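2024-03-11 09:14:02 INFO worker-7 job=invfold-0412 stage=load source=structure_tokens
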């Protein structure tokens, strides 16, 4: 199905799932994006939280809301995001990336909090079809960059790609007493990523040699979603623009990027949701 409007693509630093329920600088910015951007035929989310040993796309008509975290409030655990799926668009995605193989998930996954914590603000009525693409943990990093480039054509058929993770995501080093703070290595790596995405997003993998990479990306799951946008930028527009900039709890970057998004300025944001005291941050699965 063709569309006269090429859809933008987004990378959202999602942080704590409590952002679903809170109003702060970040969630207000996400909501403003949803109101300002063209309405998509569907949203394809690449979430850090569907990190498995396979490449798959959700293909069920009514994806379930998955509460994939620990120690949070009853209200958050009861939150539902009842967006429809779309099996036909799932099949379009499978065809668009051939010869890369992506399987149809008819009944296993759904929408995890990396997806719905963001879409609750982008599309609060849950009235846009949503699909998720898994992150194949068995593949090398350049696989994800290349798959992002293959997905770029979907934007011409009304599909908005929303990648959800965090540029910097180190749960073991999180400090609740620094709600808006950032360690110096966090700021350095976040800035290096911004410069790389402005100059040559297709070469983003050279940041794996950056001196702060091991602290900023102790596990690849939250960084990989950004590679999908970098791959699209390499295939099309050629640069990623920072839309929202900020930090949380010392060791999280909340920076968000847009592709094909006109932004007058980068929003400097504060007030991201934190993690309840009763749960160790590194066991919360945020």
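2024-03-11 09:14:09 INFO worker-7 stage=emit residues=286
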């Amino acid at each position: 199905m063709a569309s006269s409007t090429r859809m933008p693509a987004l990378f959202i630093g999602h942080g704590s799932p409590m952002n679903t329920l809170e109003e702060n600088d970040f969630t207000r910015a996400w909501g403003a994006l949803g109101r300002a951007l063209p309405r998509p035929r569907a949203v394809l989310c690449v979430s850090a939280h569907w990190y498995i040993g396979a490449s798959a796309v959700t293909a069920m008509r009514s994806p379930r809301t998955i509460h994939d975290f620990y120690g949070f409030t009853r209200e958050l655990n009861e939150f539902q995001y009842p967006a429809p799926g779309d099996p036909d668009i799932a099949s379009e995605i499978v065809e668009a990336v051939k010869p890369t193989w992506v399987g149809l998930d008819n009944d296993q996954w759904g929408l995890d909090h990396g997806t719905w914590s963001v879409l609750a603000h982008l599309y609060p009525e849950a009235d846009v079809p949503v699909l998720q693409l898994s992150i194949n943990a068995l593949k090398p990093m350049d696989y994800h960059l290349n798959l992002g480039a293959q997905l770029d054509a979907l934007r011409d058929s009304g599909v908005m790609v929303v990648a959800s993770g965090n540029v910097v995501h180190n749960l073991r080093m999180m400090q609740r007493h620094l709600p808006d703070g950032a360690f110096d290595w966090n700021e350095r790596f976040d800035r290096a990523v911004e410069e790389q995405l402005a100059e040559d997003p297709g070469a983003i993998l050279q940041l794996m040699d950056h001196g702060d990479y091991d602290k900023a990306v102790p596990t690849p799951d939250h960084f990989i979603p950004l590679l999908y946008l970098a791959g699209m930028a390499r295939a099309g527009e050629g640069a990623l623009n920072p839309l929202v900039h900020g930090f949380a709890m010392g060791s999280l970057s909340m920076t968000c990027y847009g592709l094909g998004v006109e932004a007058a300025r980068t929003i400097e944001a504060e007030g991201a949701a934190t993690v309840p005291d009763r749960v160790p941050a590194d066991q919360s699965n945020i």
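2024-03-11 09:14:09 INFO worker-7 stage=report msg="The chain has eight helices and eleven strands."
2024-03-11 09:14:10 INFO worker-7 job finished
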